[in-house]
Amino acid sequence: MSELSHKDWISKAAVIRFRDKAFIDGKFVPARSGRTFASINPATGETLAEVASCGEEDIELAVAAARRSFESGVWSRAKPAHRKEVLLRLAQLLRDNLHELALLESLDMGKLVNDASTVDVPGSAAIFQWYAEAIDKIYDEVAPTGEGDLVLVRREPLGVIGAVVPWNFPLDMATWKCAPALAAGNSIVLKPAEQSPFSALRLAELAMEAGLPAGVLNVVPGLGETAGQALGRHMDVDCLAFTGSTAVGKLFLQYSGQSNMKQVWLETGGKSPNLVFADCNNLDAAADMAAFGIFFNQGEVCSANSRLLVQRSIKDALVEKLVERAASTQPGDPLDPGSKMGAMVDAGHTANVMRFIESGKKTARLVAGGEQVTVNGRGSFVQPTIFDDVAHQDSLARDEIFGPVLSVIAFDDEDEAIRIANDSPYGLAASLWTDSLSRAHRVAGRLHAGTVSVNTVDALSPMTPFGGFKQSGFGRDLSLHALNKYTALKTTWIKY
Ligand code: NAD
């Protein structure tokens, strides 16, 4: 729980400063066109700031700055031990500015400031620290050619990385791309989502304060179709790392094919199943975590456990517990540390979520929530919502809703549970609850998902790869494996 009170957060919010320009070559600059977009607090409907809306010419400048810094070697050829020191300082600066960063996240996209200050910001600092500490402990290879030849197989930074990220965990998603890419020595042009530009801009400023040279981390706020597309199509971007929807991920593959064949790494959508077997002996824990798995961050989580598959004999008992948990997870003011759920990111997304709920009311049995609400008479909030008796072919069970909407589906045996779980275009994460060790291994092995959590949900750490199967994407964020995305193998063959 955050150490600040509701009143403390409100007074900090009243004086917070929003960085509203692009950050290119170490300086805040307006968009060349002078265009801006409004960043709106979804909990109140108030405009927080008009933010530079970058277009092609701004992307041009940012990529040129990134390229110059990369070729100069000031970061790309700096000793790993030096990169470590700078990134460790950045991790510390994130911690030193915890309250400000948490507030920026909360005001910008509606999440609970309590979660931002205990999960998002500390998580981002921990990831910068983890890659900083790792980078001077990784060795390259010597090929076993034998006498007369010495063959070095080394990993080199790729060059200019474009990173395009979503709004649900703005600072964390930026960090998942920037920390490994910077540790490996690349230069970056980062485009935050238009709903949530502020923490990325502050991150770039803090990175310079930590000692990152100008031009190594550039941030270009702007709309997806303009700034995002310009980055995706740029001829001098070596790699595009994307997190966001599957539909936009597919566009980045096209942009690449139609431009310079840049490497594209996609972390996209999900419809993650949570399987609860009758031999799970702690139904309360399963209910707590199932509720957390779908209501945390208003359900705006790529790996949200949005499909609850329950063995028929325990289904009613589990649903009853979930309805109780939904009742105690109602939306509240995101700045109040006592609130259980925040605001949806914007009015448009709220309308999308409500469309799913309204159509679900005709095809399944609504047992909790189902309404859009306001808090203190304003804002875009949705009640925690549970549908029982959902047919697994129904849109409720197939489409990513990206909101606090749980679909409950009954199954009779293990084979049926696995078949339903895998019958999805997505494969990001899955959870399963059982007291049988054999069943845990058997089922985990057969689920098509990048991460399977057993007797918990959504387990993740900087140490473990995160990413999807099928249309949830490819490549992995986090862990040492993420470094593969931002480096290329170089063979140097020496004859002697
Ligand atoms: P989105 O795809 O709409 O936007 C993501 C980013 O792409 C934003 O920066 C946006 O400006 C940009 N963009 C949008 N249209 C574009 C276009 N035509 N060309 C280029 N760029 C464009 O996604 P969102 O609504 O911001 O986020 C929600 C989605 O993100 C969900 O599908 C969720 O599952 C996914 N997500 C995935 C992960 C993961 O690790 N797999 C993590 C978080 C979120």
UniProtKB/TrEMBL annotation:
Family statement: Belongs to the aldehyde dehydrogenase family.
Sequence ranges assigned to domain Aldehyde dehydrogenase in this UniProt record: 29-491
Stated name of the protein: Aldehyde dehydrogenase
Active site positions, chain numbering: 267
Record's keyword annotation contains Oxidoreductase: yes
Keywords attached to this entry: Oxidation, Oxidoreductase, Potassium
Classification via Pfam families: Aldedh
Coiled coil: none
GO molecular function: aldehyde dehydrogenase [NAD(P)+] activity
Domain of life, source organism: Bacteria
PANTHER family according to UniProt: ALDEHYDE DEHYDROGENASE-RELATED
Keyword Oxidoreductase: yes
Species lineage: Bacteria, Pseudomonadati, Pseudomonadota, Alphaproteobacteria, Hyphomicrobiales
